[in-house]
Specification:
By secondary structure, the chain is α+β, with helices and mostly antiparallel strands. It has a single domain, classed as Multidrug-efflux Transporter Regulator, Chain: A, Domain 2 (Orthogonal Bundle). Helices cover 45% and strands 12% of the residues. The protein has a 3-stranded antiparallel β-sheet with strand order 1-3-2. Helix 1 packs across helix 2. It is globular, with a radius of gyration of 16 Å. The chain starts with 9 loop residues before the first strand and ends in a 14-residue tail after the last helix.
């Protein structure tokens, strides 16, 4: 019987950045703005973000995007390169 890999409860800023395909600094901005929940742990105050918090952020981003599309606020840019 094979065991499923253990899913981590918390991620580092770098892991979240990789998951969202953004730079680590953008994740820090999201945390400081309150858009993404995170906690500081240990004496050095390193940031950790719950995997469920990342999933909640993604779901909320989809919801906001759908609202903006429905309101006609977003156009199809045609490529990701134009968004940068």
């Amino acid at each position: 019987m094979t065991e499923e890999p253990t899913k981590r409860r918390f991620l580092t800023i770098e892991q979240v950045a990789d998951e969202l395909n953004v730079k680590a600094n953008q994740v820090r901005v999201l945390i400081k703005s309150g858009e993404l929940r995170g906690i500081q742990v240990g004496a050095r105050g390193v940031w950790r973000i719950g995997t469920q918090d990342v999933e909640d952020y993604i779901a909320e981003a989809y919801r906001r995007t759908a609202e903006r599309i429905a309101a006609g606020e977003l156009e199809d840019a045609g490529s990701d390169a134009q968004e940068a």
